[in-house]
Amino acid sequence: MTPGDSATSSAQARWPVLLAAGLFGIAVAEVAVAVIGSAVAGMTWNEAWDHFVVTNAAMGLSFPIGGVLVAWHRPRNPVGWLLLAAGIGHATTAAIVPLAEAGVRDGWPGGLIRTLVTVASWAWPWSIGLCLPLILQLFPDGRPVFRRLMWATVVTSPLFALEMGTSPDPVVAGISGYLIIHADLDPLWTAVEVRGLAAIAVGLVALVVRYQRGDERRRRQLLWLMQAVLLVLIVLVPWGVLQNAPVYVLLAIPLIPAAMTVAILRHQLLDIRLVLSRTVLYALLTAVVVASYVGLVALLDNVMRREAGLGSSAAVTVLIAVGFNPVRVRLQRIVDRIVYGDRADPVRAVSRVGARLDTGLPGVLEAVREALRLPFAALRTDDTEVAACGAPPELLHTIPLTYGGVRVGEVVIGLRAGEKRLGGPDRAVLELLAAPLSVAVHAVALSEQLQRSREALVVAREEERRRLRRDLHDGLGPVLTGVTFKADAAGNLLATDPGNARALLTELRTETAQAIDDIRRLVYDLRPPALDDLGLAGAIRQRAAQLERPGLTVRVEAAGLPALPAAVEAAAYRIAVEALTNAVRHSSAGRVRIRIHADGHPAAHHLRVEVADDGGGSGAWRPGVGMRSMRERAAELGGTCIAGPEPTGGRVTATLPLAAT
C-alpha cells in the first residue's frame, strides 16, 4: 500500500464520523435555539408544553445522542443514521415554534411566519412516518427481514407527512402554513393512518422473527428494546386512555433510542432478563391491582354504599392488600419461568433432563440449556470437550460430575449477560442436575469402553484365525499332501520294488510324526492340554520342571483352588508361565515362587496369581511383548496385572475376576 492509498483509506474511514458529528451538532444547535427562543419569545412553561416544544426538544436531543454513538462505532448500521434523522426532524420543529411565536409578537412579515410554520409542520412527521418504522424493521443489525415491505414503507412514507403538513389546523397563534388542503380527504387520511399502523406492525413482526431465529446475543439485544417499549407502554397506555392526557407522558419515548444504543453497543451491560422479568412482573401487578380496584369499587359501591350505607374504599383496600401477595407470587413464578426456565422448580428441570437421556450427550445439554435458559453448556471429560451447545460467553462456571465417588467429568455453563457469578437458585438446580449428567457421562464412557473391547475382541479373533489358517495352510497342509503322495507311491512300488516302498514308508512315518507334532502345537496354542490332563497347578508344575536349571528352584503353591472357568484358568496359566519364563531368562534369580489362590474362598470373587523371584535388577522393567501379553490377558477378563522390580527382586501380580466370567 502506497502513502497515497493509506491517506485515501484514512479519509474514507473518517468521513462517517465527521458526518455523524455534523448531524449531531445540527440537532444540538436546534435544541439550543428551541430553549433560548422560548425564553426570548416569552413563552411560559405551560405554553412550551402545550406547543410540544419541550417534548420535541427532548426527542430532538435523545434520538441524536443514540444515533451519533451508533453511527460513530457502527457506521455501516443504518439504525444510527435513522436515529439522527428522527432527532433532527423533532429538533427542527422544536426550534421553529418559538421563532414563529416571537415573529407573531414582534410583527415579522406574515410570509416569513407562514414559511416557518410550514417547515415546522413538515419536519417532525418524517420521524414518525419514515424513521421509526424503518428503525423497527432494521434493528439491531441493519439488515431487513422483509425487504419488499421495507421499500413499501419508504415509498409510502410521504403520505403521513402530506397529511400532517397540509392540515388546516393552526400551529402557532392561529397561523397555518402554506400548502394547506381544505378539501374533504377523510378516506385518504384514514388509509394513511392504516398505512402507519401497518408499517409499525411490520416492524414488530420483524422483531419477533429476529428473536425466534436469533442466537443468544441477538435475543439479548432485542430484549433491551422490548424492555424500553414495555416501559413506554406502561407510561403511555394508562394515561393515554384518559381524556386530556398530559403531554409530558411523551418524555418516556426517549427510552427507546437509549435502549437501542445500549443493545447495539453494550448489550451485555446488565442482565436484561432479570430487569425484564421484574418489569413484566410489576407491570402485571399494577394492571391487576388497578383493574381489581376499579372493579371492586364499582361492585361494592352498589352493594355497600346504597344498601348498607357504608363507604367502599376501605373494604376494597383491605381486600387488595390480602390478595396482593398470592397474586404477586403466582405472577413471579410465571414470569420467572418464561425468562429463567425451570430454575424455581428443580424437580421439573431434572425430569426434563432425564427425559432426554436417550438422545445422547448433546440432547442432554440442550435440555439443561432449555431448563435454565442458559447461553452455553458443555461437557468435558479428561480436559476434552465431548459435547457443547450454544455460544460460550466471557464468564463460565464449572460443576464437577462424580459417579461412585470418582470424578467422571465436569459440566461447564455460561453465565447470563450481566451476571458476575452463578446465583444460588441456579447453583442448586445445577448441582441437582449433576446426578443425571454424571449417569449420562458414565454410561457414554462405558459404552465407548464396551465398543473398544468389542473391536479388540474382533481384531484378536481375526488375527487368531489368520494365524491358524497360515499354520494349517503353510505348515500342516503341505506335510499331509506329501504324506498322501508318498503313500500312493509306496503302494505302487510295493509289488515291483519292495525296497523303495519300505524306504518311502519310513519317510512317511517320519512326516506323519511331524504332522502330529504340528497338530499338538496348534492345540497347545489354543489351550494347553496339560490343563485338561493335570489341572492348573499340575500344568504349572510341569512347565516349571521343564524350565528349572542348576541353581534355580521353582516353588508352586496352588492348593485348594475352586473350580475355575476355562477362560480364567487359561489366562492364569499363560500369565504364570510367561512370568516364570521372564524370571528364568532375564534375571539371576535363585528362587522363584508361584502362588495362586482365590480370595474369599469358597465364595471366591478373584483369582490372584503372584510370581516373585529374588533376582537383582536396576531400574524399571522395559515393556516388551511378554509384559504386554500378560496385561492384555488380564484386561480381557476385566482384571489387572502389575509387574515390576522390588527391593527383594521382581514380582508379577495378576488379579482375575471370577464373578464376571
Q: How do the helices and strands line up, and which of them pair or pack?
A:
Layout: H1 3-40, H2 45-50, H3 53-73, H4 78-106, H5 110-123, H6 125-138, H7 147-156, H8 158-165, H9 186-213, H10 216-240, H11 255-265, H12 272-308, H13 313-340, H14 346-354, H15 360-372, E1 376-381, E2 384-390, E3 396-403, E4 406-414, H16 424-493, H17 498-526, H18 529-547, E5 553-557, H19 566-586, E6 591-599, E7 606-613, H20 625-636, E8 640-646, E9 649-657
Parallel strand pairs: 5-6
Antiparallel strand pairs: 1-2, 1-4, 3-4, 6-7, 7-9, 8-9
Helix pairs in contact: 1-3, 1-4, 3-4, 3-11, 4-5, 4-6, 5-8, 6-8, 6-9, 10-11, 10-12, 12-13, 14-15, 14-16, 15-16, 16-17, 18-19, 19-20
Protein architecture, described:
Helices cover 67% and strands 10% of the residues. With 661 residues, the chain is of the alpha+beta class. It has 4 domains: 12-266, no CATH class; 284-335, no CATH class; 346-442, 2-Layer Sandwich (Beta-Lactamase), CATH 3.30.450; 534-657, 2-Layer Sandwich (Heat Shock Protein 90). Strands 5-6-7-9-8 form a 5-stranded mixed beta sheet. The longest helix has 70 residues, at 424-493. The two termini are 75 Å apart.
